[in-house]
Amino acid sequence: MPSSSLSIPARLGPEEVVDDPHMGFGRFKPAAKLTLMRYLQDLQDAEIPTSPVPPKYHTGRLPNGKPGDGKPRLLLMGQRRSGKSSISSVVFHKLPPSETLYLETTTRIKKESMHSFMDFQVWDFPGHLDYFDPAFDVDNIFDEIGALIWVIDAQDEYLDAINRLNTTILNLQHSYPNILVEVFVHKVDGLSDDYKSDTFRDIIQRVQDELSDAGYENPPVSYYQTSIYDHSIFEAFSKVIQKLIPQLPTLESLLNSLCANCRIEKAYVFDVLSKIYIATDTSPTDIGSYEICSDYIDVVVDVSEIYGWDRPSENGNVDEAIEETGNNDAESLITMERKGNNYLYLREINK
Ligand SMILES: Nc1nc2c(ncn2[C@@H]2O[C@H](COP(=O)(O)OP(=O)(O)OP(=O)(O)O)[C@@H](O)[C@H]2O)c(=O)[nH]1
Fold this sequence. Notes:
GTPase involved in activation of the TORC1 signaling pathway, which promotes growth and represses autophagy in nutrient-rich conditions. This protein is of the alpha/beta class. Helix 4 (159-173) runs parallel beside helix 5.
């Protein structure tokens, strides 16, 4: 993969859950150049290997695509106040979830480019926008799309949201039959377990029934229960992003063999910046193991922030000081005594 900055926390032993301490990349002082961040900061200038093979999804065209700016798009759509901007701010800008209360309504399409393990764009749509209005260039919106993420507020009346979702799917069905539609049943944090699963089932049922009444059987729609107040939103995004990574089967089989050869129970490749996991081995995934690995990254980044800065050497030469502090790739191992002989191991790998 071109331009990737990844780490592999591998978990051994049963799951443990730790509360999210919300890592904030905005907190990094320019002088505190820890190793994990260096790659991220350097990505703009990252070398792209020259390849005779035309670029695939991650750098170029999608199955529906026409040549354009070459970055797959994730479109965030849904009703007003359903939580689209909050999702994008929490996942990609490390905004603490409680601060999303102060986000203003989006009034025009907000386009952001992400440079990370792969380049992609996130387009945040205003809730009220009718993108099938003739004034809009529909092709321009949907041509290079990687996935359409439809956000439904599970705490609110959702029938209108379902209607709009179905209209959108049906409108796109003929011109863009391969578009992945990812439905985030969002804000589930405020719901009791029973109500949460009833709502989730109800939404799936209604979408499927309406589409099948309209003659569209087996649409490519997936559903997730999400909240910005826990790891579920990162997990859901991980699964969406993984669908866009053509190398996923290769990564999975490499991780399978890592697990088999090193007797590791579960291994993940993480994108440090977003804490999206790009791949994991094919053993069953549970959110607990994802959460603890993700929190572990926070801890390592926080510790690196304290100790990983460039210290001027005695003669004031910063370059020498870097040599002294030896900024190698991050590597870390902890034992979790409470649960017996379990280890959590993180190894940073470069792009
Ligand atoms: N309880 C809860 N509230 C959330 C969650 N996500 C977002 N919110 C709240 O929902 C409200 C609306 O969020 P926004 O992100 O502005 O919604 P939007 O879809 O971008 O809205 P528009 O810009 O008007 O289209 C904010 O007060 C958020 O704090 C969540 O997972 N749980």
